[in-house]
Write a structure and sequence with these properties.
This protein is of the alpha+beta class. It folds into 6 domains: 194 residues, Orthogonal Bundle (Hypothetical protein af1432), CATH 1.10.3210; 143 residues, Beta Polymerase, domain 2, CATH 3.30.460; 93 residues, Roll (Ubiquitin-like (UB roll)), CATH 3.10.20.30; 108 residues, no CATH class; 63 residues, no CATH class; 75 residues, Alpha-Beta Plaits (2-Layer Sandwich), CATH 3.30.70.260. Helices cover 49% and strands 15% of the residues. It contains 30 helices and 20 strands. Strand 7 and strand 8 form a beta hairpin. The longest helix is centred in the C-terminal third of the chain and has 34 residues. The chain is elongated. The structure holds manganese (II) ion (MN).
Length: 744
Amino acid sequence: MDLAHERYEELERHILAANPGADVERIRAAFEYANNHHGPQLRKSGEPYIIHPIAVAEIINELDLDQDSIVSALLHDCIEDTDSTHDEIARLFGPQVAELVEGVTKLTRMQYTSREDEQMENLRKMFMAMAKDVRVILIKLCDRLHNMRTLQYQSDLKQKEKALETMEVYAPIAHRLGMQKLKWELEDLSLEYLDPVGYHDVQEELEKITALHAGFVDNMQAHIEERLAEEGVQCKVYGRLKHIYSIYRKMYSQGKTLNEIFDLYAFRVIVEDIPACYTVLGCVHDMFKPVLGRFKDYIGTPKPNGYQSLHTTVVGREGIPFEVQIRTWDMHQTAEYGVAAHWKYKQGMANQKLGTERDFEWVRKLLESQQDTDPDEFVRTLRVDMFSDEVFVFTPNGDVKSLPAGATPIDFAYSIHSAIGNSMTGARVNGRIVTFETPLKNGDIVEIITSKSARGPSRDWMKICKSNEARNKIRQWFKKERREENIATGRSMFESELKHAGLSLSAITANSDLLDLLLKRVRCGQLDELYAAIGYGGLSAQKAAARIKEEMTRLGRLERQRAEQEAIQAAVSTGETVYPSTPKDSILAPRRSSSGIIVSGLDNCMVKFSKCCTPVPGDPVVGFITKGYGVSIHRQDCPNADPARRKPEEEGRWVKVSWAETPDAAYRTSIEISAKDRDGLALDVAMALSAVKVKVNNLSARSQPDGYATINLELAVRDQKELKGVINKLSQIPGVFLVRRAGG
Ligand code: MN
């Protein structure tokens, strides 16, 4: 029998020993498949390649993972290193196995080396986020463990690279998953390559000291076992030296000597249940002198990764301090194997209290989700979905960027620098050109194509991007680069919001005192500034309009109060009686008015036509009795006369009015023309007005940078009929798309 088959038979014996019901046919088929595919490939050690997957499967078996994991371990390098495919593996060994092998392959293809410190956490997160199924991580960890165990065959450079990567990525992940045993071995193996001198120093020192303490561990172990047997406690006691890296770290980073390290030795007492843990603690403290401040109850307060034990440090008769860790068998399994322990011992996990620290939250969830499900179901539903709100991608230099889930190349570009985003003309993901909307996936390598002649971001980008960082930077760009455009778009957005609120832009801008007050209210020095702020998105048009409306209401109230005050003053000085309001339906008959308006119930009162809607004869109208200025006439469709907006306390001031049969000859009214701007537009308007022989009091035309123009006209007309004719005529001028009356 060849070496490969010899090793495989050994693996199969171990699998059957751990699980007599294992489906060895399927496992053997996986071995034969991998063996055929790797064929004559050799490892650096000179052994056949297949020895490596068999060794990984051995470690997986030691962790007692499920059968799919063992099969996947045997096949784990097939997709990467042979002509085997996902589909073929799915057909022969099922989709689960194919997914696991594919997952491991993805992690293998990633490069994790030589990163800055701040990048490491992102790398670890990406590693876990990419895996999706926690078994993929476990297989990858076992793969790395075997590679570290056989690292002596690699070149010096490769050794350092792999050791660093193991120390910074793999060992912390093992820790996060609560797999202490694996973590310790990875750390010691890495240290041996990263700092061989330091490693061997610690090793030598330890040998010297343990030579002095010859027999200490065995004696102490026997001593403790004896005492606990007397107390009738069922237990197992293990003694050991702490692993080298933990001692190394204390010596080098905390500057301690070996003699200052209290816990070179650690004893574990493993018992049946939690009450026994506290009984043992009592005995240990009775036998030895406890070191003050070293007792820790991780049963009452478990560590975030689920670790539970009682820890205490004591000093024996020989004066050697040592740590004692007391725990149940369940706790022991969790301590050694972490997440992997769930395939081993389902019982007893359900009632454990576990930590809630954010990083470990998902582990807790995994453990909780295990309740009430059978182990197979548990394995099937075990998805690693932490960090689902983040996506991790690489720059072409290999730096990792963390972006919000769903992020696009736009987010990526702006996360590097706003100049990159602003000059972006295209993007490549994993070497392929993609559209700007393409959502990025974990592990993608993203490259931004830029050009000096780029036209800058488009407004759509703000809708496409997912990060606030990108959105803010794009907004900044629009603020600076596109002032003219911002003013034009801002103005039209503002105007339509105002209209919504029942206000007209021209009414506001016509009164410069009012305008100044209003601009102050929105904290802008000039009208253009307000438009620009709305245009680039720094100020919402809706908010600005709401504030203006508030201010208008406030000013209106002040004005009325002032007028009323004046009227009272005037009345007092002349001795007249003041009537603050008049009933709107009077029994008195309507009378003729010199203004062409008949106000029911009021004889010959002062009438003025409101500026907001400039009514002309024929318009349905309504009157408002002002305090001191007579009756102001509004069109019934004027927003200021809208019954829904009238104040209840002023209800009595609204009066019925009607046009007299023979009104005055001319009424002033305002209209606004919107048109596509062109040469001669204002002239055409003036010609049209002259053709219909209407008197123009005022004409003002403003061009907008976006190619449109607004023309405001103040006319004198006889009535609505004449006005309609004028509007008709104006509407026929080429380029004019809207002619409307002000305030309507
Ligand atoms: Mn491998």
